[in-house]
Amino acid sequence: MPAIPKRALFALALGLCSTPAGAEPQSDKRFSLAAPEKLQGSGFLDYLLPRFSLKTRMAIEMQTTQSAADARFGDAGVAVFEGDGRVWHFDPGPDPDAQRFGEWLRSDIGRRTIEAFSADGAPVFSAVTQRPLAAPKAALDGDAARGERASLALCGRCHVIGEANRMNSIGSTPSFAVLRTLRNWRTRFETFYVQNPHPAFTQIAGLTAPFDPSRPSPIRALEMSLSDLDDILAFVQSVPPADLGRPVQAMRE
């Protein structure tokens, strides 16, 4: 059996261990949050959290210790606002609801909400609008031309790959250009085989387990190699993201 790249092993472990096979992390409309006493004592969280909960119907439970919480304000994570002599960061952890809160903090409405808080008539915090640079990912070493051909042959029966199959796909599935608007498009493509509905009909040589004989693929199986996946990733990187217009400019993750 050929050696399995570490990237593929990590992606499979992430998909199979953190959630049920093929499942996205599920929202339970709640998460726990920890914050330093200084921030809690400012009254800022009593002002901020209900405004987020009102819009999302999401419950936020405050924890007294950082380790017991799903998410936390402090020195780690993404810088979201500054004031009281320091820059405050937010670390959402893996909880999808906490991650949604982090996205809201960095959105236009979230920044306006942060800056509207005042004490004795004076603003206390200002939003941090510049995000830190993300660590660069390893370069893709697949062949984009082969990846385009593989995408058409393997993925084109459901997804619009480009002009070549614009009229020969399933309308309810997103095109590759639309998927490229996602901030985590690369992760989603790297782990597509553990995301529904793909596990039911996808076989990657040397990576995925054979189908259970009692539960065969409901459609013609999609069979590919790890080299095919690398080539497809290289091709998708070359696909221009779809122009979704204004005010919507990119899909949510």
What would a concise description of this structure say?
33% of the residues lie in helices and 15% in strands.
Structural notes for this entry:
The chain is of the alpha/beta class. The protein has helices spanning 6-17, 37-41, 44-56, 96-106, 108-116, 144-154, 176-179, 185-190, 226-238, and strands spanning 30-34, 59-63, 71-74, 78-83, 86-91, 118-119, 122-123, 126-127, 202-204, 222-224. A hairpin with a 2-residue loop joins strand 4 (78-83) and strand 5 (86-91).
Sketch the topology as an H/E string, one letter per element: HEHHEEEEHHEEEHHHEEH
Give the total of beta strands: 10
Instruction: Summarize model confidence as the mean pLDDT.
Output: 83
Read across the widest sheet, the strand sequence of neighbours is 2-1-3-5-4-8
| Cα separation of the termini | 35 Å
Largest β sheet strand count, sense and barrel closure: 6 strands, mixed
Q: Total helix count?
A: 9
Helix fraction bin: 25-40%
Output the keywords:
253 residues; alpha/beta; six-stranded mixed sheet; two-stranded antiparallel ribbon; 9 helices
